[in-house]
């Protein structure tokens, strides 16, 4: 049983109440607690030593990544983060200065996005260091962008460049909060998420939630310099476009919108965010799954992104 | 450095923003997000194999305890829980049925208190099973009861009976949500928390936050049957009153209110909650620390409750 099969079994009949607008299965839960103009976004995410960082990763970067991943999920809904709680599960012997540096990394990123850190807890974890962060945010009532709204004919876009994130970007990416809000404010974004498991795996989340398929144009997929270098050196063990499709932890925005808005979006984006690439990589079609078009012609693409269990 | 010293270092200058009413240091964070009549309560709590439960603890009880601890913290603020996120950090090999039973325990308790489970995540934790739960709740604007409001002359009360929780109660306690809201609705509760670290340690949290001291009457402290049995058999290694003062994980309410309300409270309580004991165990005085009055006369009481690090 892999991670997604287990989650599917666990989430099929969860307790609900009238506050729930969107429960398990999207980037954040969406709750209506009676705020006149906003819904709440609620998210939790953990990073674990040996999986998301290594024992010798600088502690500020561990902290930054732990909070950054949650912020990226708030971005994926076009929301604004408000307050975070930090859970530190620490090995039995630990260096208090190391823990303070983790907090320094969390706090610096929190200040950058006006997020309050309002507590949390420390506990013992015999095996390794684990940091779980819980984040609360808001989104205007009509603006939360879900995974389930992709429509036939939509253009598929992705920000930035993908692949090879393990070389460094996974520790110091910028959550696309400003970009996501701007997109939701100015265009009809039908579906959006942040690329954490890998472009192909995450696109499939959109496709499955929306009941559609996708045509991807291989040459349009933006490949990062890190993925090209890793492919050239042989370290990646896969061609750069495959790395861009499956590496994961890019934390870029993947979204769809009506194709008539594609050119106006590209024009407006260049003015608003000149330093960040935006690529149209394909379109939504009826059916299911991903059809990848490259020099070998169109073929179904089955490779997965990252899964936590085999 | 013990747990409380570390937390004090980590929390002395956390990022804040205008939404923060109460940050780190109370049972829950309190946030003002613009709800007309309510503030939000925000809490996270983790249970770890080998510390909060054992490898052979029935999984339903592990799940129940994990959520129950968070609910008890919402009770400590006189709030109402709304929605929870579940983080499961699982050993590399695990039995999916075991995980489903953990969720069954969480879900049953959630339904009992109308809490929605709106997602979470599963990740790998090499050493052991860890469950972190994040909980969101609400509290009427003027009703959140903090730790910091105890005043000279206040009567000190505790619900239920204390000590020996490790014999079973720590796995199937009832969070005192209804009782706490009733208290806040009908009396001037100055300070409140839930007894998790042990009566003495938790009372000190109130005393330190409020800048006062306390006189406790040893014979008034309600000792559980489990603590008496453990003392008689020699298994506890301490007298029953000391167990009641230091064992922890009772998850009862400890609170103070003006002494003139003590008798009306006891009368009203007997009618409203006839099955649950309520004991006046002492009073708040100027000064600091706990003075315990027993057959040896009054003496400073220094023993601590549970601390996570030595």
Name of the CATH homologous superfamily of the largest domain in chain A: PurM-like C-terminal domain
Largest sheet of chain A: 7 strands, mixed
* Number of DSSP E strands of chain A: 13
Structural class of chain A: alpha+beta
CA radius of gyration of chain A: 19 Å
CATH topology of the largest domain in chain A: Phosphoribosyl-aminoimidazole Synthetase, Chain A, domain 2
Number of domains of chain A: 2
Beta-strand residue fraction of chain A: 25-35%
**Estimated helix fraction of chain A:** 25-40%
Poorly predicted ranges of chain A (pLDDT <50, ≥5 residues)? none
Which CATH architecture of the largest domain in chain A?
Alpha-Beta Complex
The quaternary organization reads as homodimer
Q: In CATH's first tier, which class of the largest domain in chain A applies?
A: Alpha Beta
SSE order of chain A, as H and E? HEEEHEHEEEHHEHEHHEHEEE
User: How far apart are the termini of chain A?
Assistant: 7 Å
**Roughly what is the average pLDDT of chain A, rounded to an integer?**
94
**Largest sheet of chain A, order of strands side by side?**
8-10-7-11-9-12-13
Largest interface, C-beta within 8 A: A-B, 68 and 68 residues
From the spread of the alpha carbons, the general shape of chain A counts as globular
Number of helices of chain A: 9
């Amino acid at each position: 049983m892999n991670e997604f099969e287990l989650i599917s079994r666990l989430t099929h009949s969860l307790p609900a109440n009238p506050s729930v607008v969107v429960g398990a299965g999207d980037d954040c839960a969406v709750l209506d607690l009676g705020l006149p103009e906003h819904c709440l976004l609620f998210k939790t995410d953990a990073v674990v030593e040996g999986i998301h960082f290594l024992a010798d990763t600088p502690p500020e970067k561990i902290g930054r990544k732990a909070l950054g991943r949650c912020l990226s999920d708030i971005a994926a809904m076009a929301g604004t983060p408000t307050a975070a709680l930090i859970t530190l599960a620490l090995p039995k012997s630990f260096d208090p200065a190391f823990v303070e540096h983790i907090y320094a990394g969390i706090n610096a990123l929190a200040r950058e996005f006006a997020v309050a850190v309002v507590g949390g807890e420390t506990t013992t974890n015999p095996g390794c260091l684990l940091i779980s962060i819980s984040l609360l945010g808001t989104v205007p009532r009509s603006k939360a962008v879900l995974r389930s709204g992709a429509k036939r004919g939509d253009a598929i876009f992705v920000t930035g460049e993908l692949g090879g994130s393990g070389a460094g970007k996974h520790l110091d990416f910028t959550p696309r909060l400003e970009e996501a809000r701007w997109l939701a404010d100015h265009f009809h974004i039908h579906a959006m998420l942040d690329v954490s498991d890998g472009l192909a795996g995450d696109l499939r989340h959109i496709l499955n939630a929306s009941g559609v398929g996708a045509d991807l144009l291989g040459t349009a997929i933006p490949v990062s310099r890190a993925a090209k270098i890793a492919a050239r050196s042989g370290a990646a063990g896969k061609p750069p476009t495959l790395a861009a499709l499956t590496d994961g932890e890019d934390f870029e925005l993947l979204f769809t919108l009506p194709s008539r808005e594609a050119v106006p979006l590209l024009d407006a984006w260049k003015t608003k965010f000149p330093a960040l690439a935006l690529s149209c990589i394909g379109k939504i079609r009826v059916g299911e799954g991903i059809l990848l078009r490259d020099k070998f012609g169109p073929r179904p693409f089955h490779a997965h992104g990252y899964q936590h269990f085999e």
